[in-house]
Design brief:
Layout: H1 9-39, H2 44-48, H3 53-62, H4 67-82, H5 87-107, H6 115-136, H7 144-174, H8 177-180
Organism: Microbacterium salsuginis
InterPro entries: ABC_thiamin-permease_prd
Protein name: ECF transporter S component
């Protein structure tokens, strides 16, 4: 019989702490996203990229199955507490991005934690979001160069925030958070 993967209280509390911190950032991004989308829409992808942080930090620190999805859902609940009207958006984004991050980690059987794997995940997440936004927003209103920049920033946004997340994850590991979070 297959061994059931359990998450210890320590792992769940670490997910919760990361989720609260990144959920606050997501709420801040949500607060400015309307202004960015209306004022400088080409930069919207950079703002939306912050949503990769919960999973990146959780997976980098804990290196276990399910931590990205759990942390994303906690972050979504925190952000929803600030903007309750957007709970559907936050939960949907958490399921999409957290699910993609878990799927990509699962493809390597949760054994590959090098930075390239996180950046590959960020590019895939960015591409999926770019395609969704392409259909949701009127991207054809931009000139050809604007369309290219718009889509490129939806891919580069998650890549940049992944770099930030890896830096935070590395700092947390150096501080001993990973040692305290036993399975």
């Amino acid at each position: 019989m297959a061994r059931v993967s359990r998450l210890s209280t320590s792992v769940l509390l670490t997910c919760a702490a990361i989720g609260v911190a990144t959920g606050a950032l997501q709420a801040g991004a949500g607060a400015i996203s309307g202004f960015v989308s209306a004022g400088v829409p080409l930069l919207y992808g950079l703002v939306l990229g912050v949503h990769v942080l919960p999973g990146v930090i959780a997976q980098d620190v804990l290196r276990r199955p399910w931590v990205a999805l759990i942390t994303h859902l906690i972050a979504a609940l925190v952000a929803s507490a600030v903007v309750p009207l957007w709970i559907g958006r936050y939960i949907g984004t958490a399921l999409l991005i957290g699910g993609l991050q878990e799927l990509i980690a699962a493809m390597s059987r949760y054994r590959r934690w090098e930075p390239w794997r996180f950046f590959l995940s960020a590019v895939i997440v960015g591409a999926v979001i770019a395609v969704a936004i392409w259909f949701a927003a009127d991207v054809s209103r931009f000139p050809a160069w604007g369309q290219i920049v718009y889509v490129a920033l939806f891919v580069l946004g998650p890549v940049g925030w992944t770099a930030v997340g890896l830096g935070v994850g590395s700092a947390l590991r150096r501080a001993g958070v990973a040692r305290r979070s036993r399975p």
